[in-house]
Amino acid sequence: MKTSVNDANRRLLGSLCAAAISCAALACVALVTAASPAPLSDEAPQWLHLAASATAPTYDKKVPAVVLLSEQNVKVEEDGRVTTTERFAIKILTNEGKRGAVAHVTYVTDTGKVREMRAWLIRPSEQVKKYGKDQTLDVADAPNDVFSEVRVRVIDASDDTETGAVFGYEFTTEERSVFTQFDWPFQGRLPTLLSRYSIALPAGWRAEGVIFNHPRIEPAVNGSNYSWELRNLAGIEPEPASPPVSSLAPRLAVSYFPAPGKPGPGRSFDKWSEVSRWLTELGASQATPNEAMAEKARQLVANSSTELQKIQAIGRFVQSVNYVSIQTGIGRGGGYKPHLASDVFAKAYGDCKDKANLMRALLKVVGIESYLVSIYSGDPTYVREEWPSPQQFNHCIIAVKASDATQAATIVRHPVLGRLLIFDPTDDNTPVGDLPDHEQGSLALIVAGEGGALLRMPMIPPEANKLERQADVVLAGDGSIAASVRERSTGQAAVHERRVFRGLSLPEYVK
User: Fold this and answer.
1) Residue 338: predicted pLDDT
2) Is residue 139 a contact partner of residue 152, using CB atoms and an 8 Å limit?
């Protein structure tokens, strides 16, 4: 579940894996208007012709495509309105590269809109095909959410393109956001000739940028206009067990600030305690238990004799609550605010922050204090200390205050709050005392007002994650073999086994 609209997470520039929109996914959405083929005489804009004329190096035959241009221009008004224009051009080098001929723009229906979106295909013969609203699909950004205000406009030209063709698109969006922070990935896996991010601010305003996965680059500054640029970025070849692209490709994080003494149109953060305070304020009134919840909590821990057993009992119950995501008010920070714990309890469903918040409320009934934890799920190296921003997170778990009597591999020590047991109540295959492997070692924010801090999540020792296999084999005189094999999994190895067991019927699992 995405807790926010995060450009670096959603935008799929140069990534063929993400750009390949499957027919099955598109079959469940409606065409904005009936599609009709555009004539081949349509003219492409000058910027696309200029990008197409660039001389690219000779690449290995395995490289499917090269990004000729990836550019975003952002204009910020004093009232907080943000206009973004993005241009992108890609040259197809192989049949596999055809999947990169897809345009996409994400927007939030509550606070934003797509003003214009167009695309063009320049064939090797220099004939041009234009794509507009008649070839545009509007799809859900997270199809598994029951409701979300985040949507994506898509133009898919992958079936029209050919080796040697250039595909380009341009879109303009308008939005208002609770934040005054943006991020920009300079590339995906594909080699990229030119990538540029520019932001134009009102007079007297300033911007600060942090570069990840690349040496620092200074922006070109003209008054209150800033521009960061990288050229000739080599491709990132997929390798088994390699870090995610987000930990390898250069990316930029930008925060902007109003003129001194003037109020800003949104939230920006100078330190992590400010992020913690803001998130704490959002959720402060959401974890109040009612009498029905109090009765349930007491029932759950009735047979528990230790603090750890109480945490485990409540944790198992919250894991059983259905995961259902309903995202509203995202552009105003709603993606970070849990629903009322009493509502989640009554309806027996919620997303990650709802489930963590419900557990927090139930623990409160039995006298155990806990805190929400903002974390990035999927890449333990994604969150960086240098950029205090809630937009670095896409998931929510819980930290439970533990006494010295409670021992578990997932306990970390906070400089102010003391011993905290980390647990993910969304992952119903990982019990209390363990943590999903894609969250271990991550930097995560303990949401505790001014006392909140960015903390390194625990790493479970290797000996706690094992698959033990014992085979008793009997070789008969006639050469036949009879064997009995027993397996025992622990830690994350057991999590994988549980997931497979629960996902298959018993005959399928036995087979």
Assistant:
1) 93
2) yes
Q: Residue length, the chain?
A: 511
Whose CA is closest to 373, among 303, 327, 406, 422?
A: 422
pLDDT attached to residue 334: 52
Sequence-distant (≥ 6) Cβ neighbours of residue 200 within 8 angstroms: 73, 74, 75, 76, 224, 225
pLDDT single digits (tens) 374-422? 999 989 999 999 999 999 999 999 999 999 999 999 999 999 999 999 9
**Which of 174, 172, 154 minimizes the C-alpha distance to 112?**
174
Are the C-beta atoms of residues 126 and 161 closer than 8 Å to each other? Answer: no
Is 12 in contact with 19 (CB distance < 8 Å)? yes
Reported confidence tier of residue 333, pLDDT bands at 50, 70, 90: low
Instruction: Give the C-alpha separation, 164 to 399, whole Å.
Output: 53
Report the chain's C-alpha Rg in angstroms: 26
Distances 325 to 181, 346, 502 between C-alpha atoms, Å: 25, 16, 21
DSSP alpha helix (H) spans, 326-394:
341-347, 352-365
Contact between 324 and 376 (Cβ < 8 Å) = no
The tokens for 175 are 């939005």
Other C-beta atoms lying within 10 Å of the C-beta of residue 483: 9
Instruction: Specify the DSSP element, H or E, that contains 282.
Output: helix 272-283
Output the CA angle 64-70-72, nearest 5 degrees: 155
pLDDT (tens digit per residue) in 275-299? 999 999 998 899 999 999 999 999 9
pLDDT digits (tens, 9 = 90+) for 54-104: 998 999 999 999 999 999 999 999 888 999 999 999 999 999 999 999 999
CA-nearest of 145, 33, 163 to 98 is 163
Residue 265 has a pLDDT of 78
Q: What letter does residue 265 receive in the DSSP assignment?
A: S
Share of the chain above pLDDT 90, in %: 73
CB 481 within 8 A of CB 473: yes
Write down the pLDDT at residue 132.
92
**Which tokens is 296 given?**
């349930």
CA 282, 5, 258 angle in degrees (round to 5)?
70
Q: Where are the beta strands (DSSP E) in 77-205?
A: 81-92, 102-108, 112-122, 128-131, 137-140, 147-148, 150-156, 166-176, 181-185, 192-200
Query: What beta strand segments (E) does 186-224 contain?
Result: 192-200, 206-212, 220-222
The token pair at 153 is 């406009």
Spatial distance between the Cα atoms of 74 and 267, rounded to a whole number of angstroms: 17
Burial readout 186-200 (b: 16 or more C-beta within 10 A, e: otherwise): bbbbbbbbbbbbbbb
HEC string of 417-440 equals CEEEEEECCCCCCCCCCCCCCCCC
Q: What is the DSSP letter of 96?
A: G
Rounded Cα distance between 229 and 246, Å, is 18
